[in-house]
Amino acid sequence: MSFDRLFRNARLPGRDDLVDIGIVSGRFAAVEAGLDGDCPAEDLGGRLVVPGLVETHLHLDKACLLGRCDCGSGGVKEAIAAVSRAKRDFTEEDVYARAAQALEKAIGFGTNRIRTHVEVDPRIGLTSFRALKRLKADYAWAVDLQLCAFPQEGLLDDPGCEEVLAAALEEGADLVGGVPYVDRDANAQVARIFELARRYDIDIDFHLDFDLDPSWATLFEVCRRTEEAGWGGRVAIGHVTKLSAMSPEAFEEAGRRLAEAGVAVTVLPATDLFLMGRDRDRNIPRGVTHAHRLAELGVTCSISTNNVLNPFTPFGDCSLVRMANLYANVAQVAAEPDLALCLDLVSTSSARIMRLEGYGITPRNPADMVVLDAGTAGEAIAAIAQPLFGLKNGRMTFERPRPHLYPDGGPAA
Ligand SMILES: [Zn+2]
């Protein structure tokens, strides 16, 4: 058989044997051992190959704000307020430049599909949304972007916001998000977001239950609305830190309800660790929901970056392998097969939440792949394996060579 590109000795997650990967016209043509190809082949030496890492929750529009606003002195409310103030100075060019900076980091760390949450309200209007629409087109060679328009500062309590949100949906937002906890009537916001989702026939991704009070939760109302609308498999909720504060019995009840309704959960370890427990002066709770326990109950889960270098999370490099490692550390996940599942939570499981078509290293799918410098999924997470290079539609999108060591002093100057 003749291939445009041929990679030998690749390890796919969950498989013990090594396979060769043949690519023709931007698609996987054959994935099996001992492929016979008459083109030059690259030997991957048993390294792990994934179809690409997947962010289900990343705020590109407010990335890279260090030095521009108060970063890190408070909790959730203070972070929202700090970005709200900084947002007054956002222009389309500024949003584009900062978002591109974060996006290029993500591409360089092997991410090739991203759901980005973009703020729309009467003050910023569609400025950030339009910047990200341009970004989506300009970087389509490396990454598929889904734009989730959402009202970060409230919907019902912010007059004029719903008109702006609807305008973003008219202009092609891929899905709608919500932040019920910032409106006085959280359930009423949930209802309005579902109405919009049904009107435009789009999926929903809420920020939800972002505190550590286990005595009440909005997730049950989201489950009820999901079933009422027939939206199972089309709704995700992010943070849901309350779950980390619930008793095992309450956690199990909530998990079973989410699984039954088809509501997915995205855990955002960096932000949750950074913003939760600000009222404590010792024994600060982790505030990170245990995705593995939810997955055991049948909930589709992902781990994602959320924020990078801004008041919600003044750290970050957009590496999903590092984020999965952070989660593993905090969730005390170190044994197999749970460690390997961490990689799933930033790839295959995330792809399921985004209902991605053609994701996976199998014949006929677009040739999207990332080679990690590790032999197994568990090793990749434990050692924070670096991605070495990646392809999208059969074309190379980035390369991150291994470090060169120079015991003899390196090349002469
Ligand atoms: Zn978020």
> H/E order of the elements?
EEEEEEHHEHEHEHEHEHEHHEHHHEHEE
Distance between the terminal alpha carbons, to the nearest Å?
46 Å
Which ions and ligands are bound to the chains?
zinc ion
Shape: globular
Give the count of helical stretches: 13
Counted beta strands: 16
In which order are the strands of the major sheet placed? 6-7-8-9-10-11-12-13
Quaternary status of these chains?
single chain
| Strand content bin | 15-25%
Low-confidence stretches: none
Structural class category: alpha/beta
Instruction: Calculate the mean pLDDT score and round it.
Output: 96
Q: For the report, how would you describe the main beta sheet?
A: 8 strands, parallel
Q: How helical, in percent, are the residues?
A: 25-40%
Radius of gyration: 21 Å
Keywords:
8-stranded parallel β-sheet, 16 strands, alpha/beta, 4-stranded mixed β-sheet, 13 helices, binds zinc ion, 413 residues
